[in-house]
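Hi F.,

I've been meaning to write this up properly since the lab meeting, where we talked about keeping a consistent format for the predictions we share between groups. The idea is simple: the sequence comes first, exactly as it goes in, then the structure tokens exactly as they come out, then a line or two of notes. No screenshots and no reformatting. I'm using this chain as the first example so we have something concrete to point to.
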Amino acid sequence: MRPYRGNDMQERKLPPVALARPVLGAAAAVLAIAAATATAQRIAPLNQDRHSPVVRVFDTARGAVVNISTTRMVDTRSRFFGFDDLPDDVFLLPGLLPGTPVNSLGSGFVIHPAGYVVTNEHVIRKADEITVILADGTSHPAAVISTDTTHDLAVLQVDLPDGAALPALPLGRSDDLMIGETVIAIGNPKGYRHSVTSGVVSALNRDLRFGNNVQYTGLIQTDASINPGNSGGPLLNVNAEVIGINTAIRPDAQGIGFAISVDNFRQLLPRLLDYRRIHRVQLGLEFGEERTAGAPGRPIVTALADDGPAGRAGVQIGDVIEAMDDQPVATVADLYVCMLQKSAGDTVAVRVRRGGGVRELRLTVEGRPRPDGEALARRVMGAALMEVTGDLARRYRLPLARGLVVTEVDPGSAAAATGLQPRDVLFEIGQSRVATLDDIALALEDLPAGAAIRIGVARGNVRAWTVLRTAPPDDEPRPREREYH
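Output, unedited:
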């Protein structure tokens, strides 16, 4: 036998390279098996439709959502007195000189193809120029049709080329909203046009209180992201129906936004589009909304004026208005918009549904005399008013450069009882801003005797809101036709 030597084991060891080869081969085999297993376990894509409800709503509604850009000339003198209530969405730079243009941005949406747009009143407040930018990027000037400062609403009309029409969003309903229901907001936050956010209805019937005795009630609370620039844009349900108008955010919180409910907007729409007040025409009828499956529908005649155009043409109470001038009337807004295009003496063809039949009638539009604002203010308020101009504001150091300055107060009048004084400047009457005698005429025209109306007054360094109560009714009957459209 060969003797054991200490290096026998060393002699019998395989070279290191020889030992490594089997190890590498095993690793390769393991990796190959793992790769094959991974291939077998990879999840195949579902190839499902990626058009979620939010995507579909945006695709459907985006063409009716607009960007609103406003320009106003800053008067640094009025800023010095503290009365420059610029909207929250203003990009304001320090060191502005008198006459410097300041721009602000907001949102809005089309409610009628003829170019009628809804937005917040604060978006267009004091604007000297208003530009509406459509989804295709084109810009058009717009004019203010009406405002409601109490509810922060405004209606604009876009100056469109002849024959042009815009896509309009349908108005839904908010009385059946559910907590947790999906909602979508489209707007222009911080100037980023056509941004979409989604969330849920967080709460209903919320109230918000601001300074200057301003309070909004019945608001929809949502966690859909709403930022400066979203103001006036639509809040939509998954059917692409407007269920709210975005109007406010809580700057000290995240995920809390508020919208005016569409049901409240519907109630205000007759005043916002009141052709009697805006264009001084009338048909001599009153109407409500036909209810179909619980949803508002076509206008239905509820009252007729004695010897008015509608009554003379054969319209009856209970008639449902289906078309005007061969254009379908699907909503009350359609009727108002049609009448906003009319002047006194024009003829309008009306198709009504009565019982099981349809009748074609022709009405001649009547004019309404424009009231004398100066005389009306003196009679109703007991105050003499004058339109404020830049020269007048500088000469008498008035607190505002726009409004109506009180020049005289009658002893014992409603104005005296309210505490109005000469050099006070009225800037708001009821739900509207006032800058001309025509403005105050429209605000006071249908105010019944003994009624109370909210007024905004600037005096010195103070701006305040108070209530003016008109004189009790006298023996003179109020003209009945004022109750009709």
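Notes:
The longest strand covers residues 195-209.
The chain has four domains: 59-158, 182-265, 273-367, 373-469.

If this format works for you, I'll send the rest the same way.

G.
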